[in-house]
Amino acid sequence: MKVTLHPGAEQDIREAAAFYEREGSAVLAARFVAEFKRLSSLLVEHPEIGSPRTRDRRGFAMSIFPYTVIYRAGADEIRVLVVKHDSKRPGYGRTRV
Q: Which UniProt keywords apply (predicted)?
């Protein structure tokens, strides 16, 4: 099984890392990216671990940062659709497929 990222999710990660680098440090930004990679590996091992959001989407909260990863689990792929800060509006990224 592999993890693929929607282009919007890639942008979400870049923006979050840039924020943490700007407001914190390069180390904090790298820690955010490392936490996302750790979570991605966890999703590959346990695709059903996230809470159901809709019929085909699940969400899983990052443990260190206030972000939730929204994804679809397929037979051989985890498709990350959204990496959203928990303060963003509930419908953020809903149209991503």
A: Toxin-antitoxin system
Whether the CB-CB separation of 41 and 49 falls below 8 Å is answered with: no
Whole-number pLDDT of residue 39: 98
Instruction: Tell me the backbone φ, ψ of residue 18, rounded to 5 degrees.
Output: -65, -40
pTM of the model: 0.93
Show the domains of the chain with their CATH numbers: 2-85 (3.30.2310.20)
Amino acid (one-letter) located at 79: R
Token output for 50? 């996230």
Q: How would you classify the pairing of strands 2-5 and 51-52?
A: unpaired
CA-to-CA distance for 68 and 60, rounded, in angstroms? 5
Measured CA distances, 28 to 17, 39, 89, 91 (Å): 8, 16, 25, 27
Q: Which residue type, as a one-letter code, is found at position 31?
A: R
Which residues are within 8 A (CB) of 42 and not within 5 positions of it... i.e. 6 or more apart? 49, 60
